[in-house]
Design goal:
The structure holds two protein chains of two kinds.
Chain A lengths: L1 H9 L1 H13 L1 H4 L8 H17 L2 E3 L3 H10 L10 H18 L6 H14 L5 H26 L11
Chain B lengths: L1 H9 L17 H11 L5 H22 L6 E3 H19 L5 H10 L2 H28 L7 H17 L26 H19 L4 H15 L10 H14 L11 H13 L2 H18 L4 H24 L19 E2 L8 H13 L3 H11 L3 H9 L6 H9 L2 H11 L11 H6 L7 H12 L2 H13 L5 E2 L2
Helix pairs in contact in B: 1-5, 3-4, 4-6, 6-7, 6-8, 8-10, 10-12, 12-13, 14-15, 15-17, 17-20, 18-21
Chain lengths: 162, 478
């Protein structure tokens, strides 16, 4: 938890840069009728820090947030009036899922998986998305455990002559 | 490196001394920064700069850890990597003789450079430990003590396989069971392993000065004295060997023997019981010195033995006072002819498939008599009997029926296994053990005890006589 705070404070110096980069994304999302104000961005970054802190995670950059915005802004299910709130919820789901899949899935894969489910099976419902992703994470962990059990025992050797 | 050290020392003034008590070997870099701040050797801006540089290293390593596929990790992962970074930094900064020099170096040099040099040190230590392991493995004692053998043959190789200099430098990565005579558990990672293997090699080298028969005989007598199976117990062989060698000298025997006869023991008992504590200390000090001289022990082993001496002195003082010297001075016993030597042959074991099939057959029967008959006719190996009991294929009174079909020898063997802890106490016999309130993990053990409790006195006494005739030493499983 302490580290999460240190990283966030170290990131203070780049917060301004993050805000500029996120504002610049409006050029891409405006075509879908979605725009974030500087105040929205400031609040979103604060919320993101809080989410990271509560999920015990350390974030090194703004790339995952940018990818999330670019991906989801193309969705017909997201409207301008709830855009900022939706992004906050998506951040929460995303970091929750990073933990639940034990950091074994890359950022891009996970974000795309979220987007696909959101569009196809959930019809834009965030509640449904949460529950689908919980199922996905639990199945993923089960497979992971099975694979580890299969590997166990076979890798306990070390050759002193190496 | 040398010139860097010299420059650093020139910058120091005598007034800027850090309090060494504030420094911690395990968190040396951090405690150096704190101590440096307090001594005025570092400003808070400098500390912030150093911290920030370490965080930059952490940032790079997290990126490397996720192979660039994730920009976030759990705090736990980040903390683990940061600890690994600081472990490397500690490794380098600890190489400065004076902490003040290390602080000035920390102040003047980019922490990344310190980190890189630390990683070199950790790598170098790992290579030394690999060599040490080869030597240790080559000189391993041929003795049937599981913890000793498994630590060398299995646990230490696991360390080499799992240890990571970059992400896990501080982790010890192996479950080492065998206890050293003197162990410094404050060390971590590869530096702990180096210490462990160096000491184990010293201990092994000392024990190897004695013949294998001497060692095996000492172990067997030790097991009998403590009423346990020495093969599976956790104890330090070196301490046992060293103390009996000391007692050999004290009782007029040679330095190169570990055997203490009953007559020698009685002489020692009389001598040690009559001495005051300071005299016991002097006596043991002299005997250890004489042992070292007669066996021409080198200085490293000598220093190690000196460190173990205090423990021996305390144990002897305590035992002399409480009249328990037999537990400390392991005496040679006439090989008491036990009427029962039990051999369990692994060859007779069923395969897993066969065992599973018989267990299914047992469970398919309704009548307990049929189950017992099938068990009696199918099982010929003691291991299979234990597997069958552990499988919970019997219920309630079926256990009673099975145990009633056993002979006293079979019951005695099971009792030796179920009550191995209780039997260590000399004051307990089977009847008194059965009166104790006990908790068992397995259903069959509880049923076994209840079955014994219901047994006639004559039969119980016969079981007990058989138990006395079986030594753990003679329960050879392979």
């Amino acid at each position: 938890m302490y580290l999460s705070r240190i990283f966030n404070s170290l990131n203070q110096s780049v917060q301004e840069q993050y805000r500029t980069e996120l504002l610049a994304l409006n050029d891409k999302t405006r075509g879908y009728g979605l725009v974030l104000t500087p105040e929205d961005i400031k609040l979103m970054l604060l919320a993101r820090n809080q989410i990271l802190y509560s999920y015990g995670r350390v974030e090194l950059s703004i790339e995952a947030t940018k990818e999330l915005i670019e991906l989801f802004s193309t969705s017909a299910f997201i409207q301008q009036e709830s855009y900022a709130d939706t992004l906050n919820e998506l951040h929460e789901i995303y970091y929750y899922l990073k933990n639940e899949t034990e950091d074994r899935i890359s950022d891009l894969k996970l974000l795309h998986r979220m987007k696909d489910l959101f569009e196809e099976e959930c019809g834009g419902s965030l509640d449904l998305l949460k529950s689908k992703l919980e199922e996905f994470a639990s199945e993923y962990r089960r497979e992971l455990q099975q694979n580890e059990l299969t590997r166990e025992g076979a890798d306990d050797e070390w050759n002193p002559n190496i | 490196m040398e010139s860097e050290h010299l420059n650093v020392s020139r910058e120091l003034t005598t007034r800027d001394r850090v309090q060494k008590t504030r420094l911690q070997g395990n968190q040396y870099t951090i405690s150096l920064m704190n101590a440096g701040l307090q001594a005025g050797l570092l400003t808070s801006q400098e500390v912030a700069r150093i911290q920030s540089a370490f965080m930059e290293i952490l940032r790079d390593l997290i990126h490397k850890h996720t192979r660039g596929e994730s920009t976030s990790v759990t705090t736990e992962t980040a903390e683990n990597i940061l600890t690994s970074i600081l472990y490397a930094s500690d490794a380098y900064l600890l190489s400065f003789e004076e902490p003040e020099k290390a602080i000035t170096y920390l102040k003047a040099v980019d922490p990344r450079r310190i980190y890189d040099k630390g990683v070199e040190k950790v790598n170098q230590c790992l290579e030394e430990v690999k060599l040490l392991y080869k030597e240790l493995k080559a000189s391993k004692l041929e003795i049937p003590v599981d913890a000793y053998n498994m630590t060398i043959d299995e646990s230490l190789p696991v360390f080499f396989r799992k240890y990571g200099v970059i992400f896990d430098a501080h982790n010890t990565m192996a479950s080492i069971d065998y206890p050293l005579a003197v162990d410094d558990m404050r060390l971590q990672g590869v530096f702990y392993m180096k210490q462990y293997m160096e000491r184990l090699k010293l201990e092994t080298g000392f024990c190897a000065l004695y013949g294998q028969q001497e060692l095996l005989s000492l172990l067997a007598n030790y097991g009998r004295e403590c009423r346990f199976n020495y093969r599976i117990e956790l104890f330090n062989i070196f301490e046992l060997v060293m103390s009996n060698a000391v007692f050999s000298i004290l009782s007029g025997g040679a330095a190169n023997t570990l055997r203490i006869s009953e007559i020698q023991y009685l002489r020692l008992e009389q001598q040690l019981s009559s001495l005051a504590k300071p005299q016991i200390r002097t006596l043991i000090n002299e005997a250890v010195a004489s042992l070292q001289q007669e066996l021409t022990i080198d200085s490293e082993l000598k220093a190690y033995m000196d460190r173990c001496q205090e423990n021996l002195i305390q144990r002897v003082k305590h035992a002399a006072k409480h009249n328990t010297l037999r537990k400390v001075i392991i005496t040679e016993r006439e090989d008491e002819t036990k009427s029962l030597v039990v051999y369990f042959n692994k060859e007779e074991r069923m395969s897993d498939v066969q065992l599973r099939s018989v267990l299914q057959e047992i469970m398919a029967f309704d009548r307990k008599e049929d189950k017992v008959n099938l068990i009696r006719s199918s099982f010929h190996s003691f291991h299979d009997y234990l597997d069958m009991l552990e499988s919970d294929c019997l219920y309630g009174e079926e256990y009673e029926a099975l145990f009633r079909s056993f002979g006293v020898t079979e019951l005695a063997i099971l009792a030796k296994i179920v009550f191995c802890e209780e039997l260590r106490s000399e004051s307990l016999n089977l009847s008194s053990i059965l009166l104790l309130e006990q908790h068992f993990q397995a259903e069959w053990q509880m049923q076994f005890v209840q079955s014994l409790q219901r047994m006639s006195r004559d039969r119980l006494e016969a079981v007990e006589r058989n138990m006395n005739d079986i030594d753990y030493e003679h329960m050879t499983f392979y």
